[in-house]
Design a protein that fits this description.
- The chain is globular and about 60 Å long.
- Helix content is 35%, strand content 13%.
- It is of the alpha/beta class.
- 46% of the residues are buried.
- The strands form two sheets. It has an eight-stranded parallel beta barrel with strand order 3-4-5-6-7-8-9-10, surrounded by six helices. Strands 1-2 form a two-stranded antiparallel ribbon.
- The protein has ten helices and ten strands.
- The longest helix is centred in the last third of the chain and has 18 residues.
- β3, α2 and β4 form a beta-alpha-beta unit.
- It starts with 21 loop residues before the first helix and ends with a helix.
- The structure holds phosphoenolpyruvate and manganese (II) ion.
Length: 298
């Protein structure tokens, strides 16, 4: 009786040739962002963070700015553990209009203070086009949240800002649509765009969203822009954040953005998915070990 194994001819293994997919052969619509047009990687430096090179840069901090103590103590903890950018929302896109909406300009002032004390540059979200000048006065990197990922008039305006933009993937956007969103910023004059995969909507309910890790190698192939991963908003629970943060490093992301809170149980927003400082330190140590094997500095 023939088994399947016996039918396999004994041919010498030859190295597999790359086969360009039809998409890869066709000139993409995202002319400025495409790898075809610009083969070398775009490297974006902000303070000690480098996005797009061999360094793996970690952004960390609370979901929302809540108070001076909360922000400064978290900033110092993440800095000591090795984060290179502090995150914190002052304008919060909440699903319910009755949830905490952020401290707005007072939050931006606290971020500036935390930057002065910790030395970390800050990234914070701009939720409305009319807030761009105010947020740009305080932030080192302007974040576009998932809900504004296809707000094309806002993306055009961010193209006029002389600061990097961290663009999150929309809940329901394909990778080509994501790259076209980035193209709006690039085409309006701002070349400093960092893409962020943060989970997409699927039928799965065990996690808040589904982290599309395959987005990382696909994006890295299609674009020269840096690509980072936000495991916190993807999974929605602190227990799953560290495994996916490590996976992001392994699949070739340029960095991660992780929510860390000095006291997650009391957080006004996203406490369930926030790491406390000791879990964050443990994650950073593990990332350094894996990064050492992969030749990625931190
Ligand atoms: C955030 O990072 O603060 C945030 C609101 O994330 P997202 O836009 O990905 O939901
Ligand atoms: Mn959050």
């Amino acid at each position: 009786m023939n088994s399947a194994c016996e039918l396999i001819p004994d041919v010498p293994a030859t190295p597999r040739q790359p086969v360009p997919t039809p998409e890869a052969k066709r000139a993409p619509e995202y002319k400025l962002g495409s790898r075809q047009a610009h083969p070398s990687a775009t490297i974006i430096r902000v303070g000690h963070a480098v996005f797009g090179g061999s360094q793996f840069s970690v952004i960390a901090g609370p979901c929302s700015v809540e108070s001076e103590f909360q922000l400064v103590s978290t900033a110092e903890a993440v800095k000591d553990a090795g984060a290179v950018v502090l995150r914190g929302g002052a304008f919060k896109p909440r699903s319910s209009p009755y949830s905490f909406q952020g401290l707005e300009e007072e939050g931006l002032r606290l971020l500036r203070k935390a930057r002065r004390i910790s030395g970390l540059p800050i990234v914070t979200e701009v939720m409305d086009s009319s807030d761009i000048p105010l947020v740009a006065e305080y932030a080192d990197i302007l974040q576009v949240g998932t809900r504004n990922s296809q707000n094309y008039s806002m993306l055009r305006k961010l193209g006029k800002v002389d600061k990097p933009v961290l663009l999150k993937r929309g809940l329901m956007t394909t990778l080509d649509e994501f790259l076209l969103s980035a193209e709006y910023i690039l085409a309006s004059g701002n070349e400093k765009v960092i893409l962020c995969e943060r989970g997409i909507r699927t039928f799965e309910t065990a996690t808040r969203n589904t982290l599309d890790l395959s987005a990382v190698p696909v994006l890295k192939e299609r674009t020269h822009l840096p690509v980072i991963v936000d495991p916190s908003h993807a999974v929605g629970h602190w227990r799953y954040v560290s495994p996916l943060a490590k996976a992001a490093l392994v699949v070739g992301a340029d960095g991660i953005m992780v929510e860390v809170h000095n006291n997650p149980a009391e957080a006004l927003c996203d406490g369930a998915q926030s790491l406390d400082p000791s879990l964050f330190l443990q994650l950073m140590n593990e990332l350094r070990t894996i990064g050492g094997i992969l030749g990625r500095s931190m």
